[in-house]
Design goal:
Blueprint lengths: L3 H17 L10 E9 L7 H15 L4 E4 L14 E8 L1 H18 L17 E5 L19 E7 L4 H11 L6
Length: 179
Amino acid sequence: MDNLQQRFKKEIASKLKEELGIKNVHQIPSMVKIVVNMGVKDAVIDKKNLELAKEQLTQVVGQKPKITKAKTSIAAFKLREGDKIGLVVTLRGRRMYEFFEKLVNVVFPRLRDFHGISKDSFDGRGNFTLGFSETTVFPEIDPGKVEKAQGLEITIVTNAKDDKKAASLLTALGMPFQK
């Protein structure tokens, strides 16, 4: 099985080196990690909502998520410091490449009226973030069994120094950007 990680090492890295005019092999941009983050809106009201979201996120990424807690208290949201309010998973290595491949080859083609991803979501330091309003776009989630629609945010962290190099990297890996 020819996976994306092997293809990156064999073909894509050398194409990027040539395309970006890089002399040193260690300066070729690559993915460092993918962080999948989920804020559970009703986690404070009912702990069951956090468990349901945790189950969904585990199915989507294939790794157990870590529970995140509120850093500050916000009275308007009835939120206290230390309340469990979200989930986060950091994918590296093989799992990261498999998740990226699933995102590009399975999830995006399933989206209705999909015309590519906007390049506006780069942060200026070579990292790219995109969000989904529902987890049901992932093939592992059965829409019939979902009680509450839950969104998630995906951040692709690269070692590229700027957005142009990061965009070249993600394009080479197959990310469908808008023309």
